[in-house]
Amino acid sequence: MHLRKQGGKFVLSKMKKMEVQETIAFIGGAGKNCPVLMKKMAKGKLRLLFLYNEDEKSLDFVQQLRAEQNAEAEIEVVNCVKESCWEADIIAFVDPEAIEEDVLRKIKEVATQKILLLITTEHQDNTSSFVCRVSELENELPYSKIVSVKVDSLGMTARLSAKDQEALQVVGEVMGKAGYETEIL
After folding, report:
1. 10 φ, ψ (degrees, to nearest 5)
2. Which residue from 84, 100, 124, 134 could staple onto 120, CB 3.0 to 4.6 Å apart?
3. What are the b/e assignments for 119-148, b being 16+ CB within 10 Å?
4. Model pTM greater than 0.85?
5. Is the Cβ–Cβ distance between 90 and 115 less than 8 Å?
6. Comparing 26-30, 54-58, 77-81, 82-86, which segment has the lowest mean pLDDT?
7. Above 60 in pLDDT, residue 18?
8. Average pLDDT score over the chain
9. Is residue 38 within 8 Å of 45, Cβ to Cβ?
10. Would the CA dihedral through 76, 80, 85, 90 be positive or negative?
11. Which residue has the higher pLDDT, 66 or 157?
12. Residue 169: predicted pLDDT
């Protein structure tokens, strides 16, 4: 409710609920590793930041996303990992097992209290090495909220796992905006 002036009198009226547009920074070969997820994210009301790694294929993929018929996302290409992660609400690693130590060092101070997505597909090996990587990241970035996301190749279901319930809820809402059904593991 808010107070506004109408015809010389003050009246109470309902405020419209503003929809928050989450910003997600993607680190890794987004087009190569999770093309279905990226195309679905482009249809959501999100702001997507893709880290440019001097790979022409990644630029071509971002151009394809921008050209998608139903794309509602604001899509940008950035060349600084620290700046993109600083701007982001959510930092998404598309290839969690290939995260470079240099990248972690650069984002450590800007990743505090942010959600870190570790995205894998059903075709990627999600065994003990992945579990170990999650544990390592929890130790290296103790003030971040780590959420594992496993998406199916058809783009229908996202399976989420995390210790932080609030982070699970936020990621579930984001995945819902992208058209995924979510399962909490």
Report:
1. -95, 130
2. 124
3. bbbeebebeeebeebbeebeeebeebbbbb
4. no
5. yes
6. 54-58
7. no
8. 81
9. no
10. positive
11. 157
12. 94
Cβ partners under 8 Å of residue 36, min gap 6: 151, 153, 154, 155
Please report the sign of the dihedral spanned by the C-alpha atoms of residue 136, residue 115, residue 92, residue 183. Answer: positive
Q: Classify strands 145-151 and 157-162 as parallel, antiparallel or unpaired.
A: antiparallel
- The whole-number average pLDDT for the span 123-142 is 78
Res. 35: pLDDT tops 90: no
- DSSP string computed for the chain: -EEEEETTEEEEEPPPPPPP--EEEEES-HHHH-HHHHHHHHTSS-EEEEE--S-HHHHHHHHHHHH-TT--SEEEEES-HHHHHHH-SEEEESSGGG--HHHHHHHGGG-TT-EEEEEEETTS--SHHHHHHHHHHHHHSTTSEEEEEEE-TTS-EEEEEES-HHHHHHHHHHHHHTT-EEEE-
The predicted pLDDT at position 17 comes to: 47
- Give the span between the Cα atoms of 82 and 108, in whole angstroms: 9
- pLDDT above 70 for 65: yes
* Inter-residue contact 138 to 111 (CB < 8 Å): no
- Show the tokens assigned to 21: 């547009």
103 has a pLDDT exceeding 70: yes
If you average pLDDT over residues 72-81, what whole number do you get?
A: 87
